[in-house]
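Fold this sequence, please.
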Amino acid sequence: MSTRRHVMPIEPLSAGAFRRYGDVIEASDSAEQFTVNQGNATRYHDLATVDVAAEHGHPVISIFRAQPCNLPLRLRLLERHPIGSQAFIPMGNHPYLVIVAAADTPLGAQHIHCFRASPGQGVNFARGTWHPPVLPLHSVCDFLVIDRGGPSKLPNCEELALDELELWIEA
């Protein structure tokens, strides 16, 4: 079977464009906010839905230290977590790529979207959303990760090799 090269456009990450795939986590003017700590801080409240309780799960907080990707990049793998959400919050001032496909659509080039997250933007992938491993641009980046831990009869990580799709991201 022959493959056709498809270059994915990179869109800026925004809450509206990402809504189908989960939440954008950022201190934006549209977020609910109020003053805390005797007036010394502003709390941007309830920015994402942590969905990890299925099958007696609990939230786990980890740090992923991710190596930078080089562009052009061929996308070779997607993964999803069918019984829990997964949030990535960058701990540095680095942009990164966010590539997603909705859980309820066939995996074809037209259904996979690429966003560029700016420094200060995190993402929370909704349960079942397809995505690759984290893809920082330019330099090593630590990410605070909030996802599901605990027992389960089902695996919470499914991987899919994209051998039949030749998907590229270019600068």
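The mean pLDDT is 94. The two ends are 28 Å apart (CA to CA).
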